[in-house]
Amino acid sequence: MLTSKQKRYLRSMAHHLDPIFQVGKGGVNDHLIRHIQEAIEVRELIKITVLNNSGEDRSEVGTELAEKSGADLVQVIGKIVVLYKESRDQKKIELPR
Description:
By secondary structure, the protein is an alpha+beta fold. It has one domain (4-84): YhbY-like (Translation Initiation Factor IF3, 2-Layer Sandwich). The chain has helices at 4-14, 30-43, 58-69, and strands at 21-23, 45-50, 72-77, 80-84. The longest helix is centred in the middle third of the chain and has 14 residues, at 30-43. The protein is globular and about 40 Å long.
């Protein structure tokens, strides 16, 4: 679990990132989860856009993405979901204590 201080730090880092995935009318599926897991292992911090045509609640989508990918949900703001997971191989982000 991330502390509020760590989430604040990650939100500031994610501000400049572009979303690399979109959740559309197909919703959350195994294919999307697999790609998120691969990307988050390399990047540690990613943004995902939830499109209007997904028809699902964005907070629920964010929670579902975090649970299924094994990541921590940093933030859901508007249509953007921010996820973080520490890399096993190459740690890039040093979180504050």
